[in-house]
Amino acid sequence: MGDAPVIGAGTYADNRACAVSATGWGEYFLRVGVAHEICARLRATNEVKVAMADEGAAAESIRTEEAQYIADAVMADVASLGGDGGVILVTPEGHAIFSFNTTGMYRGRATSGGVREVAIFGGEEKASATPDH
User: Which residues does 53 contact at the CB level (< 8 Å), separation at least 6?
Assistant: First the structure.
């Protein structure tokens, strides 16, 4: 999907939920509508929180744990069909989250706060708070 991502499958953005970029076996990403599905689930989660806040509960933003759970669940849907790949998503608060069902996925990020991360395999983010000189 990375060479020519299809909107809804390989790329999608919604200010109320997230922005998603995907890579993988495009046929399966199309069938699941991966990027849109992740955004729709996150948007629904946020709408429930807003509705609860209207009833007196404190509204909170999308938590990274919720976004991670949803991304992992959608990628599990892809895997159950026989496809593989991964996604990187960014929440409205600027939290970057990734999910993949392959051995590795090349990825990196940099923030205005000085965080720089580059990784291939799961759980190996290497962050640097200050630039190398």
Answer: 59
Residue 66 lies in a domain: yes
Inter-residue contact 102 to 130 (CB < 8 Å)? no
Give the H or E element holding residue 30: helix 26-32
113 residue type, one letter: G
Question: Could you report the per-residue pLDDT of 32-52, keeping only the tens digit for each?
Answer: 999 999 999 999 988 887 777
Q: What span, in angstroms and rounded, lies between the C-alpha atoms of 35 and 124?
A: 24
Classify 63 as helix, strand or coil: coil
- Let me know whether 25 and 40 are in one domain: yes
Domain count, the chain: 2
Q: What is the pLDDT of residues 76-116, one digit of tens each?
A: 999 999 999 999 999 988 888 999 999 999 888 888 888 88
The token pair at 2 is 């990375």
Cβ neighbours around 126 below 10 Å, total: 9
For residue 123, the enclosing domain spans 103-133
Q: Report residue 54's pLDDT band, with 50, 70 and 90 as the boundaries.
A: low
70 and 32 in a common domain: yes
